[in-house]
Design brief:
little secondary structure, 14% helix, 0% strand
Length: 417
């Protein structure tokens, strides 16, 4: 059986075929198995295929062992390096004689005798007498109580009192308004209207009088040329058709298995490893826990506590309520509802405050309004005059001579086909 390559079995693109090159640049001695372009490249005129600038791998052979010497090694001269001498410290020799520890502060400072500080505040003396202290101040002795008079209220009475008269619905605008009546407007149209002229309208213009019509030549139209097909055949052969050589090849075969339905008459084996190795173990039923029956104790229960045994009882009188037991009876006398506010209150008459209105700077006219304006007063009507025609009375007649319509452009123009 022939062994298949991975490129013939799988087409996912993730696996690599070991028989095909994968490097960026192929080996020069081995022909490329993917394309024949470099071998069968056709030459077009003076254009040649580009040459590779990569140097050819020439085997130079064994040239002997490599000498590891460099210019630095050959030019380097070793020198004897000695250690730098260190600085020697001088031996300490103490100076003879005693050190003078005196300072200028000690020389200039003079000692004075210090005495304790005597406070200038006299000592407090406590004088005690056997007499009783009189606690009545002079304010109580000299104070004289005066009779207080009841103070009159200065608050004005601001209660609203509606007027007794009937409400009058007139306003200040209605009272001050004077109706002038409707006056007809005066017409400013002039009384004398100019009369229209009886002469017929002359609509002849200078363009109509001076215009001379000239006959127009027929427009030159280029005759269409008939189509003449070429006798030479069409060269529809392209470089692609000329140079392309279709190589015969086989269609790629699909390695996908045939999706046919596999059927078998053998009965299905439904036994599994779990069923074969399963061992059934005996299981007992769960036991139910029965609650114990309550049995009352036969002995007497001791209800005494530490508080009851240690507690010492004291004779204490019960709490007496300060609330009277007998409620007072309601009085039959009338209730006095008079207060100082009601006795001293006096209703005042409040008048409505008049409207604060500025006096008018300009006095209104009392007479009837005159609708005459300055334009009406100074306007002077004038009679309308017809416009004067500036058309000449004797117009020149049309000339019978043809119009010289030739120009330099039309004479020097050379029509081109």
């Amino acid at each position: 059986m022939k062994r298949l390559c991975i490129c013939e079995i799988c087409s996912c693109g993730r696996h690599r075929c070991p028989h095909q090159p994968t490097a960026l640049y192929g080996k020069p001695n081995v022909t490329c198995v993917l394309t024949e372009y470099t071998e069968k490249y056709p030459a077009y005129g003076r254009y040649n295929p580009p040459q590779s600038l990569k140097p050819k791998p020439v085997n130079h052979g064994d040239r002997g062992r490599m000498d590891g010497t460099t210019t630095f090694k050959t030019d380097f001269i070793p020198y004897v390096v000695t250690r730098r001498p260190g600085k020697q410290q001088a031996e300490y020799k103490p100076k003879p004689g005693d050190i003078d520890l005196g300072t200028t502060y000690k020389q200039d400072y003079s000692l004075y005798e210090v005495q304790p500080f005597a406070p200038s505040r006299p000592s407090e003396r406590v004088r005690t007498t056997g007499h009783k202290m009189d606690t009545v101040p002079t304010y109580k002795e000299d104070f004289r109580q005066w009779e207080m008079c009841k103070r009159e209220l200065k608050k004005p009475d601001l209660t609203y009192h509606p007027p007794d008269a009937k409400f009058d619905g007139h306003t200040t605008f209605q009272d001050d308004f004077l109706s002038r009546g409707l006056a007809p407007r005066e017409s400013f149209k002039p009384s004398s209207i100019p009369k229209m002229s009886d002469t017929p309208f002359d609509g002849v213009t200078s363009n109509q009088q001076c215009y001379v019509s000239h006959p127009l030549e027929a427009r030159w139209v280029k005759a269409p040329e008939p189509y003449k097909p070429s006798s030479q055949p069409l060269q529809d052969l392209t470089t692609n058709r000329r140079d392309y050589q279709g190589l015969p090849g086989q269609l790629p075969q699909s390695y996908k298995p045939n999706p046919g339905k596999v059927t078998s008459d053998v009965p299905f084996q439904s036994s599994t490893e779990f069923k074969e190795r399963f061992q059934q173990w005996p299981v007992s039923l769960p036991q139910l826990h029965k609650s114990l029956q309550y049995v009352s104790p036969t002995e007497h229960m001791d209800m005494s506590t530490t508080s009851g045994s240690v507690y010492v009882q004291h004779n204490i009188q019960p709490f007496i309520s300060a609330k009277p037991f007998n409620r007072p009876t309601k009085s039959s006398a009338p209730f006095q509802v008079c207060t100082t506010m009601r006795d001293d209150y006096q209703p005042w008459e409040v008048k409505r405050q008049a409207m604060i209105k500025k006096p008018e700077e300009m006095q209104r006219a009392t007479g009837r309004m005159d609708h005459l304006t300055t334009f009406k007063a100074h306007f002077t009507p004038h009679e309308l005059q017809p416009n004067v025609s500036f058309k000449p009375a004797h117009a020149p007649l049309r000339a019978d001579a043809p119009l010289e319509s030739g120009t330099m452009y039309s004479t020097e123009f050379t029509p081109k086909r």
